[in-house]
Amino acid sequence: MKTFERFYRNAKANRWYWLFALFCRVSLSIGFIASGMVKILGERFASGLSANHPMGAYLEALHHTGYYYTFIGVAQVIAAILLLIPRTVALGALLYFPIIVNITVLSFAVRFDGSFVSAPLMVLACLYLLFWNYDSLKYILPFKKHENKTIALKPARYSLRFPFGFAAAVIAMIAVVILFFAYGHDVMPRNDFKNCMAQFQQTEYEMIGKEFCECVHKKGEPLDICLGVFETAIP
């Protein structure tokens, strides 16, 4: 832990790490304020998505849960506002994290294009903010060996040394998420029938792909059933 905290102090004294933390705070806040206000105003999130789509069916049902739907929106907006206030960033990240992890798992489960890339990137950004606020959170972590001296003091002068290793790691993580979206699944429901069919055009699976897309977008069957039909039809 001493080695980690020395690295942490060096990161906190670097202007580039600070700028990246600021970028994460603002971008995460914008994301939750936008989606949260939709729920508070009583509108269905991703209203253009058909209710036959797995995510569309979920959002349609969620929209009809009454004040629970509003509660989710309020929680998102509160988390976003807390991230924007310097003194409450740690609390905001703690509230934000379980919400965005839930959204990420849901996106993966139903293979939803709309948040398949953005949601895991938001999880990583929130994890960075939790790391950035380690000095506020370390006392509730199950680690007893940490330095007692305060490590949250603002440096008199920030270092301008560019963290090339960290930048490369961020780019690599983004690339991994995008590649997983592009190649992680052989079949995706996509957001509508036309885009669903596009992934099978000029392939040997065009006919069984059409059955899969019709199963999802026209019949409104659960995704696992449609995937089962597709996998069974593969010669």
Keywords:
235 residues, membrane, DoxX-like protein, globular, 2 domains, 0% strand, mainly alpha, single chain
Polypeptide structure, described:
With 235 residues, the protein is mainly alpha-helical. The chain has two domains: 2-183; 193-233, no CATH class. It is 68% helix and 0% strand. The chain contains twelve helices and no strands. It has helices at 2-12, 15-40, 54-63, 67-84, 89-110, 113-116, 118-132, 134-137, 164-183, 193-198, 206-217, 223-233. Helix 2 (15-40) crosses helix 7 (118-132) and helix 11 packs antiparallel against helix 12. It starts with a helix and ends with a helix. The mean pLDDT is 92.
What is this entry, summarized?
With 235 residues, this protein is mostly helical.
Residue share in helix: 55-70%
Q: Any low-confidence stretches, pLDDT <50, length ≥5?
A: none
Range of strand content: under 5%
Separate helix tally: 12
Average pLDDT taken over every residue: 92
Please give the radius of gyration in angstroms: 22 Å
Number of strands: 0
Q: What order do the SSEs take from the amino end to the carboxyl end, as H and E?
A: HHHHHHHHHHHH
- Mind describing the biggest β-sheet? none
In whole angstroms, how far apart are the ends? 54 Å
Helix vs. strand class: mainly alpha
The shape, in one word, is globular
Number of domains: 2
Transmembrane segments: 16-38, 66-85, 92-110, 116-137, 158-183
Organism: Marinirhabdus gelatinilytica
Protein name: DoxX-like protein
Keywords: Membrane, Transmembrane, Transmembrane helix
